[in-house]
Amino acid sequence: KAQAQGGYRVLRECLSGARAAENCITALSDGGLRGLGGAGFATGRKWSLVRAQPGPRLMAINADEGEPGTFKDRSILEKAPHAMLEGALIAAWAVEAKEVYIYLRDEYPLARKILAQEIAALEAAGLCAHATFILRRGAGAYICGEESAMLESLEGKRALPRQRPPYVAERGLFGRPTLVNNVETLALVPEILAKGADWFATHGVRGAKGFRSYSVSGRVRAPGVIRAPAGSTARELIERAGGMAQGHDFKAYLPGGASGGILPAALADEPLDFGRLDEFGCFVGSHALVVFSQADDMAAVARNLMRFFAHESCGQCTPCRVGAEKAAALMTRQTWDRPLLEELSQAMADASICGLGQAAPNPLRSVMRFFPQEIGLPEEIGGAS
Fold it and tell me: Do 361 and 344 form a contact (C-beta atoms < 8 A)?
């Protein structure tokens, strides 16, 4: 059915020799496709790095999607699985990976059923003779969003982030060079190759390139996944989601899920793209927009997020394991100790092994900067409210 609707045409061209791997990689680079699991690493460059490593090579797809507020990958897997599957087979062909591991969040039983069924159909159609799909269930650990922790889990070990270097492109799954891509990233590959790099690059706004699938939730009328130009703003996405829910006024938002920090409504016209929110101590990550209103206590939001990080810390490194727990305790006070929390936040950001501990202080720092009146502090000079 997917082939009858035009699916797998690009893959067939790749396998037949009508397309060269180098040209495909160049098209993805020129189009500006980046990793959409959160890190934003250039996809074409990542493929080139893995392809340059000695074989045999492997591939892993991170479909764990543990970032609170993020559900775009689930939508793709349940509604358009063949876009991702074709993108994965193209990637495996380009880097000459013989096995493709899909690390799927176990809370997505429908996605698992669909993938198992469609992978079997692909095998029967002879479209994956060059690469074998291996479907693995994740146990819902947030830390497995970090690529090396995911690989440790795939190897049957406790999911602890690895020290780097070496990077997974050099020594990844089972010690082999490994390409790790996100579901949405791969789903865009066939479309970009079919329509051209210029088509994708020119669809962004405010200097960004391409499309994004934004997970929009919270105090909006119609939460869901919104496909919009990269560089869209929170205000524009709220409008696309039907506006604020009845009786709610826009107060603040998470631009990138739990770890991306918190921004006030006054900054709702900032482009949601990689690197554009750095000056505010925030980032877009997996492009999960969570909207808050006057009914929400931002100190309570930050406390809830810090408790989440403390619970999900893998415990390997002291700055994250102890820091998140201590921060959560300090944040229960009516008046926050800004110097102490800032010192603790800096230690976590500087010394944690992976992004979990490094980004965990973002929400508390955001509240101290943008909502000091809610934690018993004087308003910070230069802050927005």
Answer: yes
- Torsion-angle region of residue 204: left (phi > 0), alpha (psi -120 to 50) or beta? beta
Report pLDDT for 384: 53
Task: Please write the tens of the pLDDT for every residue from 15-65.
Answer: 999 999 999 999 999 999 999 999 999 999 999 999 999 999 999 999 999
What is the Cβ-side half-sphere exposure of residue 18, based on CA atoms within 13 angstroms? 10
Q: Look at residue 380 in the predicted model and tell me its pLDDT.
A: 63
What's the rounded Cα separation, in Å, for the pair 235 and 91?
Answer: 35
- Per the CB < 8 A criterion, the answer to whether 219 and 101 are in contact is no
Q: What is the 3-state secondary structure (H, E, C) of the chain?
A: CCCCCCCCHHHHHHHHCCCCHHHHHHHHHHHCCECCCCCCCEHHHHHHHHHCCCCCEEEEEEECCCCCCCCHHHHHHHHCHHHHHHHHHHHHHHHCEEEEEEEEECCCHHHHHHHHHHHHHHHHHCCCCCCEEEEEEECCCHHHHCHHHHHHHHCCCCCCCCCCCCCCCCCCHHHCCEEEEEHHHHHHHHHHHHHCHHHHHCCCCCCCCCEEEEEEEECECCCEEEEEECCCEHHHHHHHCCCECCCCCEEEEECCCCCCCCEEHHHCCCECCCCCCHHHCCCCCCCEEEEEECCCCHHHHHHHHHHHHHHHCCCCCHHHHHHHHHHHHHCCCCCCCHHHHHHHHHHHHHHCCCHHHHHCCHHHHHHHHHCHHHHCCCCCCCCCC
Q: For the whole model, what pTM was predicted?
A: 0.95
In this prediction, the residues of the chain whose per-residue pLDDT falls under 50 are 381-382, 385
Q: Which residue has the tokens 């016209």?
A: 269
Find all residues with CB under 8 Å of 307, minimum gap 6, and list them.
Answer: 328
Give pLDDT, residue 310.
Answer: 98
